[in-house]
Amino acid sequence: MGSLMRFGAHVTTGGALATVPYRAAEIGAECVQIFVGNPRGWRFVPPSDQAIEGFRKGCAETGVEPFVHCMYLVNYGTADDALRDRSIAALAETMRVADELGVTGVVTHLGSHKGTGFASVLDRLCDGLSAGLAASRHTLLLPENSAGQGDTVGSIAELGAIVGRLDDERVGVCLDTAHLLAAGHEIRTRAGLDALAAEFDAAVGLSRLRVLHLNDSKTDLGSRVDRHQNIGDGCIGTAGFAEFVHHPAFAGLPGVLEVPGLAGKGPDAANLARLRELRRPDPA
Ligand SMILES: [Zn+2]
Predict the structure, then answer these.
(1) Residues less than 5 Å from ion ligand 1, measured at CB
(2) Distance between the two ends of the chain, CA-based, in angstroms?
(3) How far is the C-alpha of 14 from the C-alpha of 138, rounded, in Å?
(4) Is residue 125 part of a domain?
(5) Most buried of 35, 43, 146, 235 (most Cβ within 10 A)?
(6) How many separate helices (H) and strands (E) can be counted in the chain?
């Protein structure tokens, strides 16, 4: 019987980085995830020293564990050199700032191979991720699993190949529940979760799993469509989440909400309460 996961939320910075840890603590979050710039734009303005200091102080005072999510536009393996250069520069800058912010890790998506196949982009993708590691000294780099939409990179096997190739202790993995279901993993049953944990352990190594994204899914098992929903209101559902958050493979890990929120304003106290109310399922 491991300890339960630690639940948290993605929170908007709203240009006020120093208030993030307090706003996270106010809704009951034990961990927090932020973007350090516009997730859908390349222009990057690094936070001021004052904002960084305020953020660090807030995390220390509240005990909230911080994570950063890298911008969405990145594609480290693409044959488009201009896009690849921008992606690597964005990751390096994010990793550098993440060190200054004192965050545990930087979660990143991996982009698309655009039909050329994963093997054709693996070298370039890993070189790009290495450049991000080289720009930092402390923060973890956490590639995230994909929902399997289009030609996106991020299956369990692909994550394993990337982690193996990088061979760096600062490389971990982020798993997103909505992406897992959409990619065809039955995460709503103990048997399905046991199979996932075994597959992940063989391909990546369970000790590499450092953070989870806890999102219900508007789309069903194997849909390959990425649409997040509030906890309990989607295809994973309350019973499915109860199995997930109590599975021993995830004990003690931070789990971050990226849900629409009951009021449509992002992760909220209500979704955190729903996670904490999930009862441990009876053993079958
Ligand atoms: Zn993500």
Answers:
(1) 144
(2) 16
(3) 26
(4) yes
(5) 146
(6) 9, 10
Q: How many domains does the chain have?
A: 1
3-state secondary structure of 151: coil
Give tens-digit pLDDT for 46-57: 999 999 999 999
Q: How do residues 248-278 score in pLDDT, each as one tens digit?
A: 999 999 999 999 999 999 999 999 999 999 9
| Tokens encoding 120 | 């054709």
**Nearest-angstrom CA–CA distance, 244 and 161:** 25
Q: What pLDDT is attached to residue 1?
A: 43
pLDDT score, position 264: 97
Using the mean position of ligand 1's atoms as its centre, give its distance from the Cα of residue 144 in Å: 6
pLDDT of 284: 63
Tell me if residue 113 is catalytic: no
The half-sphere exposure of 170 on its side-chain side, counting CA atoms within 13 A, is 19
CA 77 from chain centre, in angstroms, equals 19
98 lies in some domain: yes
Cα(232)–Cα(245) distance, integer angstroms: 13
Q: Among the options 23, 84, 210, 213, which is catalytic?
A: 213
Predicted local confidence at residue 282, as pLDDT: 83
Domain that holds residue 144: 6-276
The identity of residue 245, as a single letter, is V
Give pLDDT, residue 183.
98
Active-site residue, selected from the candidate residues 176, 216, 243, 268? 176
What pLDDT shows up at residue 27? 97
Task: Tell me the residue length of the chain.
Answer: 284
Q: Are 205 and 169 in contact (CB under 8 A)?
A: no
Low-confidence ranges of the chain (pLDDT < 50): 1
Question: How far apart are alpha carbons 283 and 135 in whole angstroms?
Answer: 46
CATH number at residue 215: 3.20.20.150
- Tell me which amino acid residue 268 is: D
